[in-house]
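assembly run, all chains below
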Amino acid sequence: MVVLVLLGGIIVTLFVGALPAFQEFGVGFITSTEWDPVEGRERFGGFVAIFGTLISSLLAIIFAVPVAFGIAFFLTELAPLWLRRPVGTAIELLAAIPSIIYGMWGLFVLAPFVQLRIQLTFGDTLASLPLIGFLFDSVSFGGTNLFTASLVLAIMILPFIAATMRDVFEQVPPVYKESAYAVGATRWEVVRSVVLPYTRISVAGGVMLGLGRALGETMAVTFVIGNANRLPQSLFDPTNTIASVIAMEFPESLMGSLQQSALFALGFLLFVLSFLVLALSRWLLRPRLKV
Amino acid sequence: MSAAATALAPAKDLTVARALGRRRRRTDAAIRWLCIAATLVGLFFLASILVTLLWRGLPMLDWLTLTTEFQPTRYGDETLPRGGLSHAIVGSLMQVGLATLIGTPIGLLVGTYLAEYARDSAFGSAVRFVSDVLLSAPSILIGLFIYQLVVLPMGGFSGLAGALALAIIVIPVVVRTTEDMLQLIPNTLREAVIALGAPKWKMILLVCYRAALSGIITGVLLAVARIAGETAPLLLTSFGNNVMSTDLGRAMASLPIAIYQQANSGFPDLIQIAWTGALLVTLGVLAINIAARILLRRRH
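ok done. output:
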């Protein structure tokens, strides 16, 4: 019961805090890109942060899912038995590292790497590609940008997706796999035509779990996204996410100000968004959770 | 003509079959190497993070860092006193300790309720669902919640608010493990106790808890490991503090916040201390995690 009250309490308090901003700006709060906390001409619109949250999480999923699938495949079918436990544990430990550590590592190790080795080396070549060239064409060379943030997010959600995939792959009845092997299928064919069809709903649930995590991730993203209230024109532009705006601006905003209320409004939107994604994830994973 | 065709056909089928087989094996091998590469990529990131932490954090990991409070940057002037992390370590221990003390009993009760009293009820599954969502809910929103609920009425940031925010994160972790562990206990054990005439509360307290003890402790350990590195909610509740403070009614330092502030300070000597703090937090969290795993493995 306490738990139910907690969740209800969170929704209610976020909404109460957000009310002044919603009243002031209405629907425009979601679609406006203006964000001006200067006293006397306050205008707040959350579109940049909302867009940044969605796009960075989607990119993180795109980066993480193939790798997570590879790890799960390796751990369930390919690796020798003695190797499965230590490697599995190591990947799970990746989930235990606090997000602030990812943030520091991202800022001091990954961001310079992205800046020097990727953007400066390949940036011009990639930018001259037809059609997708604009993705890499950026005038900012800080290293802290959308691409770095998505990369850090991808590493952070990797263990969650990989662990879910491994667990559901292991639940495929051995008879199914053995009969496929018996007609001469290779390991890849077994996974593609037996394991994946059998587990595809749960795999989608695992991906949703990762997405839910990525949406609300705060500290790691705050370190590396560049914190600029601009819509990114390319992968290497700095931008913002809901969580990073709250972390950056809330501690220095005035108690009870319109800015604080606008941040609450963003928090409320983030809550609704991640609640929907996590609920969907749970619903998709439901058949597998009941062992 | 027809004789030649029948003689040729099997040979042609065989080459096609061989080519097909080669392609299938090649695909299989390619995928296999890609999967091995993916695993190596995952392991590489873990190694990279750990090596970076050790390399940049170890040089400053000494008694002085552990026992002195924050000092402003020396900015190249070696005669100025060097700062440390003692205020943050004390603050972290107090907030994490208090949060565990508050969150564990609540989580334990909810978990017990789910496993022993409401296993198949609709209300039970609603609670289970909400608890699972809370488990992955963005922690910064829990900070906003406590800010509105505790910080605003109290008129300022406080260590107590920080501990409450962390306690909310503890609850769903403990709920999940407690419920899972209690469900592993065979029903025959429960029936045996009930058959002896024991009331249900005695069965839970004396038999089920005892049987699930190591699992429940694992859950608490995992919860501690989870909140020890939490930064976002603390930013909005206990805010951080540059001097030693054990007053729960005022802003309080913590390791993650100290790391965050000093890493972004731009001064090399403060960034050094941030790395040392990061090393401390990570070693602590990983040690607790591994301890929890060993505890659990010994059981099964």
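The first helix of chain B runs from residue 2 to 57.

Residues 70 and 242 of chain B are 6 Å apart (CA to CA).

not gonna interpret more than that til we talk
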